[in-house]
Write a structure and sequence with these properties.
There is one protein chain. By secondary structure, the protein is mostly helical. The chain has helices at 3-23, 35-38, 42-67, 72-86, 88-97, 107-128, 139-154, 171-180. It contains eight helices and no strands.
Length: 181
Amino acid sequence: MTWDAFHHRGDVLRTVTAEVDLRRDGSLPMDLPGVAETFRGELDLLATLQLRWHTRLAGRIERELGDQPLDLDSAVVDAWRATADQMPGVRAVLDRHADGAGDAADRGEAAHVMAVATAKERQMLAVLAGRVSSTEPEPHGQRIGEELEDRARAGWTEPARGRRRVVAVSFLDRLKAALAA
């Protein structure tokens, strides 16, 4: 991928993210300018949004663990909620497509991709909460990760449409993020 293509893809993805955050209906905005030319199809866009969510969630969990290292479960739950606050439209897209009922052209393949991504995410939640040690998805870790996710969802209220919750970021948080990059 060329430099220009990489940056164009990032620009289109930012536009897509802003649009799904505005719409929050869980649909993939394939009608936006540049989407059809940048992504190979709905499944490619869905996988890209899943990766963006996963990356943001993992980074947020790491920050929360730095702030509350003694209560790992709460750090993971708080990080999930904060990420959902920052990306409510992306979360809506992922939730809509989780069972294959979304608008991706190949629902079976989309359901499979989402099932694998969900398994990996739940295992990551369990590992980062210190409840399991294996990073490979396994039933015990899946169960714990699902419990943590359910706990996060139960206490999360979606921000008002068209708005994101403002999350205060301290100078130290910005410095940590810069050093991590």
